[in-house]
Specification:
Number of helices: 4
Number of strands: 7
Order of helices and strands: EEHEEEEEHHH
Oligomer: single chain
Largest sheet: 5 strands, mixed
Helix content: 10-25%
Structural class: alpha+beta
Strand order of the largest sheet: 2-3-4-5-6
Length: 172
């Protein structure tokens, strides 16, 4: 059985109008994609599919958490992610150049699989830096030893500034 079959939408069976679908993805879903930058997550997708005579409009709304290593203290954290994306699926020649938000399918296509887009939108929702807001958590997962070390390093740098050394440098 195809592991991505649960993400196939029978678009020929839908009437014109708006339809609502929900998906939840986790680590088992992410392992279906090679070299994924995310190993584990718990993300819920709300998908609004509007079927029109000439196209499909898919509005994805995602919210959840991704397991990540904190860039500040190296602890494993649940990084919150949220995003909204739109995908336009037009009927036409499948060989036409696809754009970022526009996909072309044949009119005879009966099933449209959204798994690839759930994965892509999850990866695109990742923040550039993984920093956990531990100040607002009752029991933060922070690595206290690393944070203490970074604080000491910061204090040492403040007392031994490069600029202080350059002030003493004679510029003749």
């Amino acid at each position: 059985m195809n592991a991505l079959a649960p993400y196939a939408i029978p678009i020929q069976g839908f009437k014109l109008g708006v339809h609502h679908l929900q998906y939840t993805i986790d680590g088992s879903f992410l392992r279906l994609f090679e070299e994924s930058p995310v190993e584990d997550c718990n993300i819920r997708f709300e998908l609004q599919l509007e079927k029109r005579a000439d196209m499909l409009l898919l509005d994805f709304e995602l919210e959840g958490t991704v397991k990540a290593i904190c860039d500040r203290c190296t602890a494993l954290i649940d990084m919150p992610v949220a995003d909204v994306r739109q995908l336009i699926v037009k009927y036409g020649n499948e060989e036409e150049d696809e754009e970022d938000e526009v996909v072309f399918i044949s009119r005879e296509t009966s099933i449209f699989n959204v798994a690839k887009y759930l994965y892509e939108f999850t990866v695109l929702a990742l923040p550039i830096t993984n920093i956990f807001d531990c100040e607002n958590t009752a029991e933060p997962p922070c690595n206290r030893d690393i944070l203490k070390f970074l604080e000491q390093e910061s204090e040492e740098q403040n007392t031994h500034s490069v600029w202080d050394t350059l002030k003493d440098f004679n510029n003749n």
